[in-house]
Amino acid sequence: MTRFLMTTALALSFAAPVAAATVAEGDVLDDTQEYRFWMLDALKSADPHKNTSKDGSQIVRQLFEGLMTEDGNGAMQPGVASEYTVSDDKTVYTFTLRPDAKWSNGDPVTANDFVYSWRRLADPATASEYAWFIELMNVANATEVVKGEQPPEALGVKAIDDHTFEVTLKSPTPHFEKTLAFPSTYPVNQKVVEEFGTDWTTPENIVSNGAFVMQGHNVGVDITMVPNPEYWDRDSVILDKVTAVTVPDANIGLTRYQAGELDRVQPPSGQFPRLLKEFPDEAVARPYACTYAYLLNLTDTGNPAVQDQKIRRALALAVDRDVLVGQVLQAGQQPAYGWTNEAIEGFTMPELDMAKMTQADRLAEAKAIMEEAGYSASNPLKLDLMYNTSEEHRKIAIVVQQMWKQIGVDLVLNNLEWKVYSDRMNSQQYEVVRSGWCADYNEASTFLDYFRSTGYNVGKYNSEAFDAVMDASKTSDDPAVEYAEAERILAADVPYVPLYQYTKVDLIKPYVKGLPEHNVMDAWYAKDIYITEH
Amino acid sequence: MTMIEHNKIEGMAARMAAEEVKGRSPWADARKRFFKNKAAMVALFVLLLVIAFAAFGNLFATWTYDSIDFSVMGSAATQGAPSIANGHYFGTDDLGRDLFARTIQGTRISLMVGIVGASVAVIVGTLYGATSGYIGGRTDAIMMRTVDILLSIPYMFVLILLLVIFGRSLSMLFLGIGLISWLEMSRIVRGQTLTLKNREFIEAARATGVPTWKIIIRHIVPNLLGVVAVYATLLVPLMILTESFISFLGLGVQEPLTSWGALISEGSGTMRYGTIWQLAFPLGFFVVTLFAFFFIGDGLRDALDPRDR
Amino acid sequence: MFGFILRRLAVAIPTLLLLIIFSFLLMHAAPGGPFTQERALPPQVLANLEAKYGLDDPLWRKIVDYVWGIVRHFDFGPSFVYPDRTVNQIIAAGFPITLTYGLLSFILAVVVGVTLGAAAAIRQNTWLDYLAVGVSIGAQVLPNFVMAPILVLVFTLILGWLPGGGWSFQNPDYWIMPVIALGTSYMASIARITRSSMLEVLSSNHIRTAKAKGLPARKIIMRHALKPALLPVISYLGPAFVSMITGSVVIDMYFSTGGIGKSFVDSALNRDYAVMMGVTILVGALTILFSLVVDILYAWIDPKIRY
């Protein structure tokens, strides 16, 4: 799963450290300061460099702290680094680390810790699944180190002194700043990692530098965290305890939330409207930087019919997205006619003709196209849709199947378990596939680069015009112009069927305060949270 | 997980094999006894009703199992309740699909999985057990040791992997479910074959040079039919239960097809959300049918078992 | 007897080896690997992972290395999905939990099942018998994935008596729902088997003789009927015991117990090869062990059986 940070603007240096948890006026603190949140699965790893899941990031963010953290809007805040400077050619970043930053064993957090940690992330011997993140950050020699062509020492990171950390980039990278609060970039304690090997993340051994330390871990049951006495900003941490509770079934999760065993839970699919009515103070839906789509396989292994742009257009036209978001998903999702999520900062979707039409017109045009191509209810176009096991994917597939039936498409639903689905999708063994994309960072290129001929692009869409526009955006003064053009090209070529833009829905007890309300990447920090009297 | 009282079937098998010496056919008597068994007759009647529902229920349905009632979709709790007026006799699921039609569809699939799965198990188990027992000697030892090894494999593992390797399909489900439950069957059949193989009529056949496979098919297997019938009847509910577990894991039949297991696991997920009919109707059919199979199986066994004569 | 046990144990080793090879081949035939995901890993990252875990070796080499690791160090390898932990650690953490709730379910199932079954047989064709038969079939056909959420609903949300999930070795409150949800269907099977074998024993000649001699009914049942009637129950209990103490995915899912029942299904779906092998071997070894225990018990109960 790829869920990355977003930021708004980033100042080059910060005036003063911001107090962590700020109690709003009129709030009375409860005697019990414990926050209990839901996790779907057991924690896979508490090692920042081995963590791959969003659930894991929620834990890692409390235990460790990177160069930067984020505020409630996702804007960058100073973390271990109190300030930094950028060289004139924008390739060398020099970070000043705060001298009072300490590990939970009392050792100071030094620049060498970051050097060790970033090398460890890239080192083939670590075999981190997120090693590509350091490549995405564009740190000098990252790719060569990951490939094993150069030793980890060649990575563009350096400790000038104990409190000065220098990073050299391969080329100017505007999104570099936005990656610095991502869990893969967090430091680990070399001494402890080398002493205990893979066992260093157990509650007895772990040493961390975040606002909390791990107190207990019952695998697959719960993880308890308590404030780190050595944390530099310990005074502003209000919670006494943070507990992550694993409940592998969403319905049981809701039951336990209602029984008062959890403070935050994700409601089961389709239940949001009812819960919103029943618990208006607790049900929350916020935009979330992902787009959901059906991708079409444009290679030889796909269905020959979808080589025809007109057929692809008909497929896109025939989906009634208002029904999908209004009656199936029902949690504030937005219909999608383009690829980039519209909550992305600085991006405005151009006016696309399909978005302006009424559904009746869309359906009429789709029917006309299909009739002209010779397809009808008696002679339908047979297409195979692949999706992985999930309640939501299942429902959407069933509804789209019925919608496409109206234009003479016989959609065969092919539900596969995750591994088979992923394997086939990445080797182009499908006709239509349920997929989507989530932002790696808060800028439109994270979406649009996908459809470049060199991008992930599992449908193998290949357009010179599109590539050219995206190339131009890299050096453009106002890339928003190129991004709009890129969306227009996609809308004309229809290499995919966009369906909707995500929301993140939650049930949160009204006494939990300090969770971010505008972070479209859903990153939160327990040091900002407090519990009011209830 | 076993639901079948192997001890009773083994006892019955032994007695039936012994009975054969007297050259009496147990079938006429058995039929009489079976018809006198009230519980079994009621169960048979109920089962016939369920089969009739699966076969002819669609004549009364106003919706098909895969069509969506867009006026109900997304608000099943308020508008999807069972109603004669809008044709959703059993209500709808949360996508607005007619539960009456889907229950019919699910009944068909589940009965089919049960019956085909049990047949695969019975055919493989009978042939394997009869061959092993009849040939005897080293072959028998190897074949039975293989069964022992296979019995120590966690069967869910095999089933999950089969569905993953070969993809989810109805035929794979039949095969997979059938293939994991023939082991016990083969043991019982082997035991009975051992008793049978020294009977005069088998020896006579052997003396006249009838080939081995023909003896197994023509002479051994028909004499096993009583046991096989009872075993099969009791295997059907077991197969249906296994299928429901597979559906719970999300490895069952593909949408828009459905099965009792899929309907029940969907219904049990949403039972708190005001759509209790989603659980109640499929679960009702499921429980009633399984009860019926159990009573019929018990009745058959009591009828065929020569013990009381 | 001693020779018999030795012989059986000697056969167990090649059996386990065959089980390992069979499972290994089956597992590697499944499409996708531990690191297959929707967003494919870049080739260089995947190559590093495969090199680290030896996934780029030929299949035979992998099997040999794996078996050698077990023989030499009792090392079942690292988990691919839980990189912080080895298979040994995963089993060491999860197995005590499933063992606890499995053993308790087993005791519950045997005590209640045998009592219910025996009572039903002794009072054949009374309301007690019908009730016992009805309850036991009902308990067998009600899927536990329906029962488990109902238990949580009733005991946690409505009554507020029990925690809705989680696990603690110190607090028995956490054990109650898993034990009930797991034990019920086994209890029902045991009751059915006990009833039918008890009926058979009660109609046999030596019980008739005992009755004719005028022995009191209680004595007949306890002394003469119960022991032989339990033989078939015991042969059922062998495999049942193993599947109970190795847990159930339904229990671990609905009650968040952290047991290995869920690890098993998860590892199959995640292609966490080593974890899956570890659990398979555990279940296989226990199955072999307890089928031996059943045979020994048989000989102990029924002196006619000699090995």
UniProtKB/TrEMBL annotation, chain A:
GO molecular-function terms, A-Z: peptide transmembrane transporter activity
Highest taxon of source: Bacteria
Locations listed in the record: Periplasm
Pfam family, one: SBP_bac_5
Main location: periplasm
Family named by the database record: Belongs to the bacterial solute-binding protein 5 family.
Protein name as annotated: Peptide ABC transporter substrate-binding protein
Organism of derivation: Paracoccus aurantiacus
Lineage: Bacteria, Pseudomonadati, Pseudomonadota, Alphaproteobacteria, Rhodobacterales
Automatic annotation (TrEMBL), chain C:
Subcellular location: Cell membrane
Transmembrane segments: 101-122, 142-162, 174-193, 229-255, 275-301
GO biological process: transmembrane transport
Cross-referenced InterPro entries: BPD_transp_1_N (IPR045621), MetI-like (IPR000515), MetI-like_sf (IPR035906)
Topology versus the membrane: Multi-pass membrane protein
GO CC annotations on file: plasma membrane
Domain ABC transmembrane type-1: residue ranges: 95-298
Keywords: Cell membrane, Membrane, Transmembrane, Transmembrane helix, Transport
PANTHER family (alphabetical): INNER MEMBRANE ABC TRANSPORTER, OLIGOPEPTIDE TRANSPORT SYSTEM PERMEASE PROTEIN OPPB
Family the entry assigns: Belongs to the binding-protein-dependent transport system permease family.
Descriptive protein name: Oligopeptide ABC transporter permease OppB
Species this protein is from: Paracoccus aurantiacus
Taxonomic lineage: Bacteria, Pseudomonadati, Pseudomonadota, Alphaproteobacteria, Rhodobacterales
Annotated gene: oppB
